[in-house]
Amino acid sequence: MSESEDDWLSLMPTEPLQSQCCGSGCKPCVYDVYQKELAQWEEAKAKKDRSLLTKQKEESSNSELNPDTFTAFKISSVEQLTEDTYQYKFELPGNSSLGLSLGQHIVLRGMVKGLEVQRAYTPVSPVNAEGYFEVLIKCYKAGLMSQYIKSWIEGDTVFWRGPFGGFPYCPNQYGELIMLASGTGIAPMLPILQYITENEDDETFITLVGCFRTFENIYLKPLLQDQSRYWNVRTCYVLSQAS
């Protein structure tokens, strides 16, 4: 039985909404993924072969990151750091690693009132962390994604895709690195910092300047204090509302 035009139109991929783009310059962007899926659909329609569409996967549950499709990860713990900032830990099977390179970020997908929203976050866990990864997230009162994130509890399943971006670095490539970070902007600095201090042969000196509202609002203080004990690490804080 021949398939009607309506049958094929029902299988046509939907163009992403503006809210589905995280705005971080990801490659591939959601629009790149859409163009790829549209080309697959057009080829399948022209050949009248639906099997060509099986290459498209909207979701995966094998805990392996993919820049084109979203993968399910389970939240293993939620830790509130300040009144509006949380650290989320996600499970990875066995001793597997997320497989990120330095400076790479991943994209979160959320649904708020029927609207799909995507935002980019950089894991704060070491790039070689096994069995887990951690993300630092600040929630905003009027933020669409924040409304979704604030509903998370331990055991929930969340969808991520990636990785994207990166920071090309070789040990001893520079004599000194100066890291300037404000608030949660410290997230992409931490894996780089830990990568350097874990390598005894890397003698790069690091100056980390963190900008926060108050001393209480400094994120991940125990980790930063541990890192500052290394001979080649110096940390200092700029507080905008210090009493």
Helix content bin: 10-25%
Rounded to the nearest angstrom, the radius of gyration is: 21 Å
CATH superfamily of the largest domain: Translation factors
Number of helices: 5
The largest sheet is:
7 strands, mixed
How many E strands? 10
Distance between the termini: 77 Å
Question: Approximately what portion of the residues adopt beta-strand conformation?
Answer: 25-35%
Question: What is the fold named in CATH at topology level of the largest domain?
Answer: Elongation Factor Tu (Ef-tu), domain 3
- In total, the number of domains comes to 2
CATH architecture label name of the largest domain: Beta Barrel
Structural overview:
Keywords: FAD, Flavoprotein, Kinase, NAD, Oxidoreductase, Transferase. Its cofactor is FAD. Residues 68-170 form the FAD-binding FR-type domain. It catalyses: 2 Fe(III)-[cytochrome b5] + NADH = 2 Fe(II)-[cytochrome b5] + NAD(+) + H(+). It holds the Pfam family FAD_binding_6. The chain is of the alpha/beta class and 243 residues long. The chain has two domains: 5-165, Elongation Factor Tu (Ef-tu), domain 3 (Beta Barrel); 176-239, Nucleotide-binding domain of ferredoxin-NADP reductase (FNR) module (Rossmann fold, 3-Layer(aba) Sandwich). It is built from five helices and ten strands. It has helices at residues 5-11, 30-47, 144-149, 189-197, 221-228; strands at residues 59-60, 70-80, 85-91, 104-112, 115-121, 132-138, 157-165, 176-182, 205-212, 233-239. The strands form two sheets. Strands 1, 2, 3, 4, 5, 6 and 7 form a seven-stranded mixed beta sheet that branches. Strands 8-9-10 form a three-stranded parallel beta sheet, with helices on one face. Strand 4 and strand 5 form a beta hairpin. The model is unreliable at 56-62 (pLDDT under 50).
